[in-house]
Amino acid sequence: MKNILLIIMLFLIKISSAQNTLPDYLKTAAENNPELASKFSEYNASLQIIPQVKALPDPKIAFGYFIMPVETRTGPQQAKISASQSFPWFGSLKAKENTAIQAAKAKYEIFNQTKTTLFLNVRTSYYTLYYIQKSIQITGENLEILRTFKKLAAVKVETGKASATDELRIDMEIAELENKLALLKDSFYAEQVKFNKLLNVKNESPVVISEIEDQSFVFDKQAVLDSIKKNNHNLKVLDFKLMSLEYLKTSAQKDGMPKFSVGVDYTLIGPGENNLAGTDAFLAPKIGISIPLNRKKYKAKVSEVQYKQDAVKMQKENTENLLETASENVYKDFKDAERRTKLYVYQTDIAKKTIRLLENEYAVSSVGFEEVLRMERKVLNYNLALEKAKSDREKAKSKIYYLTGK
Question: Where do the DSSP E strands lie in 172-302?
């Protein structure tokens, strides 16, 4: 029975840990983040504009009552009912519809850009937590080594093989590391709150950090730059804005064309002479035309759109320049992190071998104490630097995903 319960517990732990991966956190952020939900609502709102702009103007119905009835051969006119429907120039409604469609697509890309920004922030915070957690672990392990080393120093002091200052120096090192460890724990909680806020969950929700796997990642600068120009959501937003403005210019041009209306009048006739019932008159349909005479107004509308197009084109060119610069910086950061990772793997291995030799020397003699402490600090710093390099490498990869719209 105990074995069965143990198997069940291990299975549940395995499921729990499997559910706490970075992709799961990204999914939670996408589902819960209020800013992302806000952008999606704005996109849905923009979709509701499309059926509004492509609809015809509302028909007009008017009722008139003759205070002084107009006498006709069949009787006095008492009231009149009119109905009319106006129609814009051919293609006007389609141009407005296309303008709204492209504007809605731009809103959708703004939503996607918000999502990629959110994912970048989640990834960056996650790898910051990774580094802090590793720092806590490494610092704690180093503290245990120093405490063991302190016991060795105490034994040597008692036997007169070492100076009491050796023990005091170790106490100073331990106190410094304990203070650093306390700061790291506070930093981890602060970053955990930030991470959970991105996911819009409780501040105290535990964050499970997985080991960083050394996966091969080829950074082809030209391929990344091509992907940015093709897939970056900020550039897509500007492309859709340009298309929307092009249709808006067409719409502005068509606003300067005549508009038509058709309608009918129905006149109510009262009783005529000798109380004879009048005959209601149904008149033939009427046709109207609205001629836009103020040409300056419509030319100004077209010019306004043209200036807006020029502004967006310049904005797109500037955005492309900024993205290319960002791509170069990410490439630099990624290659630097890769080099540092290889360097500190090598340096850490040598430092650990050196510290073991120094510790053995110190155990059998009173020489090398200063060198032991110095090498302990180096091992600590190299371990921390290695984990920082790994974290920075993953952050650089996350920035690549962000820039390429993935």
Answer: 259-269, 281-282, 286-290
Mean pLDDT of the chain: 85
Find the CATH number of the domain harbouring 296: 1.20.1600.10
C-alpha 227/C-alpha 400 separation (Å) is: 10
- Please check whether residue 362 lies inside any domain of the structure: yes
CA-CA distances (angstroms) from residue 166 to 152, 359, 380? Answer: 10, 13, 19
Measure CA of the first residue to CA of the last residue in the chain; give whole Å. Answer: 49
Which residues fall within 8 angstroms of residue 405, CB to CB, at 6 or more apart? 112, 113, 116, 227, 228, 231, 232, 233, 236
Rounded distance, CA 165 to CA 155, Å?
Answer: 13
Indicate the helix (H) or strand (E) that contains 364: helix 295-364
* 3-state SS class at 77: strand
Question: In sequence order, which residues have a C-beta less than 8 Å from that of residue 55 and are 6 or more positions away?
Answer: 93
Burial class (CB in 10 A: 0-12, 13-18, 19+), 157: middle
Query: Taking the complete model, does pTM exceed 0.85, yes or no?
Result: no
Structural domain includes residue 344: yes
Contact at 8 Å (CB) between 34 and 52?
no
208 near 17, Cβ under 8 Å? yes
- Domain of residue 343 covers 20-55+88-257+292-403
Does residue 277 lie within any of the structural domains? no
Structure tokens that stand for 184 in this block: 């790291």
Count: domains in the chain:
1
- Residue 344 token pair: 């500190």
Report the run of H or E that residue 124 belongs to, with start and end.
helix 92-158
For residue 66, tell me if it sits in a domain.
no
Query: What is the per-residue pLDDT across 270-324, written as a single tens digit (0 to 9) for each?
Result: 776 655 555 656 566 888 888 888 888 889 999 999 999 999 999 999 999 999 9
